[in-house]
């Protein structure tokens, strides 16, 4: 069967993206508020009047209404058509770089991945949080689409399941380790005052240490064993960070003198920490969802004391989703672009004497889009810079 003409594919992807962009606006509005994304039907947030189909045509409804609600005249944020248009253009670009006729389900997976990135970034800009409802299912979706790629249902160039799992664990592990070490420094190397029960940063740090010597599975097993002990004791059994974090750093530094490959130890440590971080994130997501559903509250102990953090846990889980969809190379390109973009914007804001209130999540999302569309070019350019 002949391939569909490229203009038809791109226009179809554009229209599909516009429609999904309309749904993305629902995610951006409702997820932070703990509302159902399916009920009630779309309505004006000012007057609560249900919206008719003619009010929901992406971009064009906003333009025809002059940016105001048909029923109460309240202004409609420009974010709505902007998100729809960005999604439409992005879906067309993805269809161009990853033709559906060749990549099949892989193209759809990358489109859904972009929606996760866009919705997460918009919510992060508003609330300084990235919902678990986006990141953790994103990790699962990335692994699922990678399994399809490994089954030969897509063209080459996308990660298989093994690459996706490695990318997810390494992505979460890298950012989690930055958070662990950064928080330790911010606390001036003092122990945590508010450890999580039964699983949290202490168990992840333990996985970092054990993973360096025995691999990620043993690292995760040690974290789960520690969590089980905490649960049985109904209190936190402390694990000194001087032992876990200090030991992990010393292990990687001195492992070569003991006949160990330092890169393999580093890989095992990061994967172990990443695995424990994702399991901890899944546990707390389920726990909070259960508490909220049982109590009817939308926030749980928001003003509870906490130890200083160098990296948001939402960013850790987002990096895991990036790795699941793009593999380890995609994670590394995403981080590099994110750091570069953050540095540039930081310099601009310093020159303008403006406060930088932008979290790392949107930078990471920008890096992921660059990695998805131009990652191979970035890697080739970087290798050329190094003469490799």
UniProtKB/TrEMBL annotation:
GO biological process: signal peptide processing
A GO cellular-component term linked to this record: plasma membrane
Record domain Prepilin peptidase A24 N-terminal: where: 15-96
Record's subcellular location: Cell membrane
Domain Prepilin type IV endopeptidase peptidase: 111-229, 239-347
Annotated EC: 3.4.23.43
InterPro entries: Prepilin_IV_endopep_pep, Prepilin_pept_A24_N, Prepilin_peptidase/N-MTase
Chief site of localization: membrane
GO molecular function annotations of the record: aspartic-type endopeptidase activity
Entry keywords, A to Z: Cell membrane, Hydrolase, Membrane, Transmembrane, Transmembrane helix
Topology relative to the membrane: Multi-pass membrane protein
Ranges annotated as spanning the membrane: 6-29, 80-98, 104-123, 135-158, 164-186, 206-229, 235-256, 268-286, 318-348, 360-382
Protein family: Belongs to the peptidase A24 family.
Protein name: Prepilin peptidase
Gene source species: Deinococcus proteolyticus (strain ATCC 35074 / DSM 20540 / JCM 6276 / NBRC 101906 / NCIMB 13154 / VKM Ac-1939 / CCM 2703 / MRP)
